[in-house]
Write the structure tokens for this entry.
Amino acid sequence: MKDSSSLLAELFAKFSGSDEVLDARELKQILNKVFKGTEFSTEECRTFVSLWDKSRNAVLDYAEFRELCDTLSEWQNMFFQYSDGPTGCVLVKQLRKCFKSIGKVNSIIS
């Protein structure tokens, strides 16, 4: 079984093509494969590109893509940590703790 790093590298190579960068449409295809059960919209992916595109060329290179995936994975893990289980919902009383945890993760990443 492949580890997540090699899977991401393989998917990046497959969808980025010869230019070795991802636009929002290509990013959407990968994210919807990597984060099964989550349906990312093209608009969400445009936002991700604008936020993680450090070189400001409207696309993500592999390093930017990896950073995005790592961040999304952290957010997803925090959500699951505070969700009530089978419904996948975060109770209001747990929401503040969840946001604080995500804030700590974001401050480490920034």
In short: The chain has a mean pLDDT of 87.
